[in-house]
Amino acid sequence: MNHFDGFRAALTGEAFGPGDDGYEAVRLPWNLLIEQRPALVVLAESVADVQATVRLAAEQGLPLAVQSSGHGAVHPCDDGVVLNVSRLTGVDIDAESKIASLDAGARWRAVLEAAAPYELAGLSGTAPTIGAVGYTLGGGLGLMLRRFGFAADSVVAADVVTADGSLVHASQTENPELLWALKGGSGNFGVVTRLQVRLYHVPAVHHGMAVYPGARAAEVLGAWAEWNGGVSDAVTSAVNVMSVPPLPTVPEPMRGQHVAMVRATIAGGDGAELDGLRSALGVPLMDGFRTCTYLEAALSGMEPTDPMPATGSSALLSELSAGAVDTLLAMSAPGSPVPSIEIRHLGGAAAKEPDQPSAVSHRDAGYSAAANAIAPTPEQLAAVQERLAEGFGALSGYTHPGALVNFMPARSTPEKVRTAFSPESYQRLREIKRTYDPSNLFRFNHNIPPAS
User: CA-to-CA distance for 332 and 243, rounded, in angstroms?
Assistant: First the structure.
């Protein structure tokens, strides 16, 4: 590692190579299936560290992967440089302008806690431990998606370290093409060291879940789909059908059971719109809906926090037909190696082009469906992948063309990434990529190659 000694000495943060104490603890991302052995892991503590690391990789022709919480790791960065920005955690709230400024490694929990005293909320998802910047750049399907749109649509400006190590500012008046590409184009155009996002005044939400026996899952999904046809844009909801592990932390009515869970967040705190669904489905095993602050709602999820070997797949649906429901339920039936399927209701504000356009595409899809599983052994991984291939293959007759970047599985191909965008947006993204990263240094992601 002698050829890195000068680089290490100039860092504010730390760098670890194979054989160094601490290397094993920092080399892996959150998804343990991305088994990687980089030549160097840099824990940046300043923008200057980020710039120096980008220049090092570019000058020495080394692969470069940028990671924060590690949830978005896509390809293993073997023999390259992993730039970990998780120590860059600054969050500033301008309550008057309703703007949050986030450093590269800020987690959603910190952002929401800083905004909560002002009754402001950012467009976070179901896991508050995820990095806010990476989630937002990938699109971001949040708890208030139908009320306020994709998280990427809320981006106001960004500071970006580009492939030559330069720090540039992107806004509507300065490098506007780069700003457009960042809003949904993920980490393809540089390292975003500071992101400004719009916040929303949300004094209260009505939030929670109602749990029904898994044997009623088809009935639940059918009633939910019919109910969706009449709800306002204030309602963002999903249904999870899953086999719940028998853990003591799981509430008794769900523990070890196959269940269908209706989750919803209603901006404004009035739960009256749930009455129609309750009337259709009757008394659930458990009813956890309540009026609360947005922060309480965002922190109440059951997303796993510890690193694990996770895999999955997803698709968009135009509508939730009976055939699509049967196919999805077959994929995640009790005893399946795929224990969980989640169907989210899209539309509302997310279906509308925002005042300041973004690269997010496929706004006309009605639903998203995502299946996930833990696969700690090669045999389990093979079984999961076989079931996913069969299930989503059978679902293809019901799908809406396209994909969502944040729901793409690891090891995505450029051909798959292309489907996340309209042809016009994809070509525009490639041309912007050519301007800011012509050598495709930032490729350990859901990659968009530069135009030739």
Answer: 8
Shortest CA distance to 214 belongs to which of 252, 245, 257? 257
Supply the pLDDT for residue 85. 97
Distance of CA 158 to the CA centre of its chain: 19
- Percent composition of the chain: helix, strand, coil (DSSP 3-state, to 5): 35, 25, 45
- Classify the C-alpha dihedral 273-279-280-286 as positive or negative: positive
Question: Is 201 exposed, middle or buried, given 0-12, 13-18 or 19+ CB atoms closer than 10 A?
Answer: exposed
User: Could you give the CA distance from residue 89 to residue 111 in angstroms, rounded to a whole number?
Assistant: 10
Q: What is the pLDDT of residue 306?
A: 86
Residue 340 has pLDDT above 80, yes or no: yes
Cα–Cα distance for residue pair 130/106, rounded to 1 Å:
9
Entry field: residues in the chain: 452
* Total Cβ atoms within 10 A of residue 252: 10
pLDDT at 1: 45
The pTM of the full predicted model, rounded to 2 decimals, is 0.95
Burial group, residue 204, by CB count within 10 angstroms (0-12, 13-18, 19+): middle
286, with CB counted inside 10 A (0-12, 13-18, 19+), is middle
End-to-end Cα, the chain, rounded Å: 35
The residue behind tokens 């100039």 is 10
Nearest alpha-carbon partner for 203 in 127, 153, 270? 270
- DSSP assignments along 221-237, one per residue: HHHHHHHHTT--TTEEE
